[in-house]
Amino acid sequence: MPDATWIDVGGVEDLKHQPVQQVLIGRTPVALTYRNEQFGAINGACNHVGGPLGEGTLDGEYVVCPWHYWKFHYQTGKGEPGHEEDAVPAYEVKVEEGRVLIRSTAISKRTRQAHEPHPLARTPHREEGPIRVLGLSTTVMTPDHPRYSTSEDLLEIGLKHASDNLECETRLLRLRDLSFRPCEGFYSKSSRACTWPCSITQMDPQDEMDQVYEGLVHWADVLVLATPIRWGAASSLYFKMVERMNCIQNQETISDKHLLHHKVGGFIITGGQDNIQAVAGQLLGFFAEIGVQFPQFPYIAHSRGWSAEDMQNNMRYVQKSQSLREGATALVERCVQMARLMVHGSLGESRTARGGRKAHELDTRAQLQGSRDSQNPSGDSQD
């Protein structure tokens, strides 16, 4: 049998200056490496979710995928020790007359090590039982020196009412008790690099963001989120959490996969300074985008205004306010009533994405071409 074709990918002097780079063998991306005066070539698509190995880095003898840091030997394509069964195809490389040549046919095959799916990756399915209410407190607090939180106090009052009087199951998650890493921007590398469950959750078993994902996607019918106002915005922990929760919405836009079914949301917002409606708008906007729905009057709030610097009096007011307690219980009741309608009623299933929505991709190429045509009606080339 004759040898497969050798493909000239460039000159040695041009290619040896980059430890890792992508070249093409026909239409196949290949990660070309240079280490210890030797070239290596492996297939450019990572086994995980197809990350571009040719855009990665070299860690010793291993090419590191830039998306999620999977590693493959730069010459054999085998995974790092303990994961050798995860291998990408390898290619033979030679140098002739100052040119780098790669054989067009791989000398090994792609193999995949069996990986158990992450528990969160299961299809969401509501188990039978009472309405389930998840409380999320986003208040930041020093662990060894706890203090009174107005928003968390009202949240606990609402959850107790749901449990004692509305026959609901309840859970309270305090974000400050969870150890979870900030979003590391996988989506910024490529939309497909943002996975469900979140890439960090898959890679780091110590990351406790999984409790938020489990509670919201798989367990709760109702989410009641409480936040203080910090410099006119929700708490820093809130934003740290929702950046990680973007992977839920990305499943809509990238994979046409709807994770949140019949979820109702409500919010409790308190602060010593005003900006309640702006904070509420951000909360409503984000959770609407991931598929949460809302009852009438979906939030309660309290603020003593811009000039109220006597925070101790703000706390005393909330502690003694019967109207705020009634507001918290009424908010939870509205959310639970809507959840019962959605869970036990007959709203039916229908697609929520519509033309013009982010989850419905528009033909932007046609739009751009149409714009060019309108600027150049004669059709003459402008190159």
> Helix and strand string, N-terminal first?
EHEEEEEEEEEEHEHHHEHEHEHHH
The strand order across the widest sheet is 12-11-13-14-15
What assembly state would you assign to the polypeptide chains in this entry?
single chain
Global structural class:
alpha/beta
Please outline the major beta sheet.
5 strands, parallel
Which term fits the overall shape? elongated
The number of distinct helices, counting runs of at least 4 residues, comes to 10
The fraction of residues in strands falls at 15-25%
Number of strands: 15
Low-confidence region ranges: none
Helical content band: 25-40%
Q: Whole-number radius of gyration?
A: 27 Å
End-to-end distance: 48 Å
Could you report the average pLDDT, rounded to the nearest whole number? 89
Verbal overview:
By secondary structure, this protein is α/β, with parallel strands linked by helices. The chain contains ten helices and 15 strands. It has helices spanning 12-15, 150-164, 186-189, 199-203, 210-219, 236-255, 276-289, 311-320, 322-344, 364-375, and strands at 6-11, 20-25, 28-35, 38-43, 57-59, 62-64, 71-73, 90-91, 93-96, 99-103, 132-137, 169-174, 222-228, 264-271, 299-303. The strands form four sheets. The protein has a five-stranded parallel beta sheet, sandwiched between helices. It has a four-stranded antiparallel beta sheet with strand order 2-3-4-8, with no helix packed on it. Strands 1-10-9 form a three-stranded antiparallel beta sheet. Helix 6 (236-255) links the parallel strand 13 and strand 14. Helix 2 crosses helix 9 (322-344). The longest helix is centred in the last third of the chain and has 23 residues, at 322-344. It is elongated and about 85 Å long. The model has no long low-confidence stretch (mean pLDDT 89).
